[in-house]
């Protein structure tokens, strides 16, 4: 397995568990974390034995944001010229599902990284926020776009303009997170959830992910059309035949990914 300096990556059966590991900086996301995260996600996407990934941090911090110390001396030409943060597009482009398991702080880029994942499971001590305004900047990794889609304009605008944090209970109520679990059980719960997903027919997993994501990119009519076409397409797979036969024969399905 590849060794990383800012991540711990382990395979738990068919689940790739990626743990952000810069405790001295509360997992602040610097260029090395990004490069390693992309490498780990690309390896995960290519590995047929892996069906779902979990990204987590520590109990104190999922990630306290982009690395302020790395950014502080940069000018416009550096940021615009290098298209700073564009590398994060690779995270959302992962074809297999990725779950964010968030305990503690998920601030700025940390909140944005969590929102790039397919869904968020939160520990009961989780705190979400886009406090960039306090640094005289704005979200830069998609937060101003994904947060309103998740929690609505009013809460997103208030959070971006004041920097106020949202706790786990409010995050669940607002639709930002799928479920809240005790922080001590978060990683085990996320790995269990990921194992359930990894046990499904792989092409159906990809299709479900693509069509739910399409709901954010298309109007209703186009989205429904996209859903229907992908649904039709799955009837060309061996796993669809197997899945429906297994139901009729009252036995678990055995998937080939074909
Ligand atoms: N970047 C770099 N270092 C960070 C960091 C960050 N985002 N967040 C925390 N750290 C470092 C601290 O500097 C500190 O390092 P030293 O010990 O060397 O001083 C260490 O992590 C521990 O942090 P604190 O002592 O501050 O811990 P705390 O428990 O007192 O406070 C906190 C925790 C409230 C999360 C506080 O660290 C904090 O406010 N962090 C910054 C949050 C923030 O503004 N995030 C947005 C960043 S900008 C961004 O993300 C842009 C974007 O959209 C992509």
From TrEMBL:
GO molecular function terms attached to this record: 3-hydroxyacyl-CoA dehydratase activity
Keywords from the UniProt entry: Fatty acid metabolism, Lipid metabolism, Lyase
Known EC number: 4.2.1.17
Catalysed transformations (reactions): a (3S)-3-hydroxyacyl-CoA = a (2E)-enoyl-CoA + H2O; a 4-saturated-(3S)-3-hydroxyacyl-CoA = a (3E)-enoyl-CoA + H2O
SUPFAM superfamilies in the cross-refs: ClpP/crotonase (SSF52096)
Short name of any one Pfam family annotated for the protein: ECH_1
Enzyme class: lyase
InterPro entries linked: ClpP/crotonase-like_dom_sf (IPR029045), Enoyl-CoA_hyd/isom_CS (IPR018376), Enoyl-CoA_hydra/iso (IPR001753), Enoyl-CoA_hydra_C (IPR014748)
Biological process (GO), any one: fatty acid beta-oxidation
Function: Could possibly oxidize fatty acids using specific components.
Family: Belongs to the enoyl-CoA hydratase/isomerase family.
PANTHER family linked to this entry: ENOYL-COA HYDRATASE, MITOCHONDRIAL, ENOYL-COA HYDRATASE-RELATED
Protein name: enoyl-CoA hydratase
Organism: Sphingomonas cavernae
Organism lineage: Bacteria, Pseudomonadati, Pseudomonadota, Alphaproteobacteria, Sphingomonadales
């Amino acid at each position: 397995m590849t060794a990383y300096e800012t991540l711990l990556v382990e395979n738990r059966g068919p689940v790739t568990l990626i743990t952000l590991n810069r405790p001295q900086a509360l997992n602040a996301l610097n260029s090395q974390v990004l490069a390693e995260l992309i490498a780990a996600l690309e390896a995960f996407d290519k590995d047929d034995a892996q069906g779902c990934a979990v990204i987590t941090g520590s109990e104190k911090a999922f990630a306290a944001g982009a690395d302020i110390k790395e950014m502080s001396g940069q000018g416009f030409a550096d940021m615009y010229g290098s298209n700073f943060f564009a590398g994060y597009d690779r995270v959302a482009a992962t074809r297999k599902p990725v779950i964010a398991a968030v305990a503690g702080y998920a601030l700025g880029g940390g909140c944005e990284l969590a929102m790039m994942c397919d869904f968020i499971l939160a520990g009961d001590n989780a705190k979400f926020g886009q406090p960039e305004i306090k640094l005289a900047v704005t979200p830069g990794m998609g937060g101003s776009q994904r947060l309103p889609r998740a929690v609505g304009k009013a809460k997103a605008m208030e959070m971006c303009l004041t920097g106020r944090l949202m706790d786990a209970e409010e995050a669940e109520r607002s639709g930002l997170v799928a479920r809240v679990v005790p922080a001590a059980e978060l990683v085990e719960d996320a790995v269990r959830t990921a194992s359930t997903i990894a046990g499904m027919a792989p092409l159906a997993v990809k299709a479900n992910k693509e069509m739910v994501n399409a709901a954010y990119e298309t109007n209703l009519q186009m989205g429904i059309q996209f859903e229907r076409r992908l649904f039709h397409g799955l009837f060309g797979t061996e796993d669809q035949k197997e899945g429906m036969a297994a139901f009729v024969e009252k036995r678990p399905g055995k998937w080939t990914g074909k």
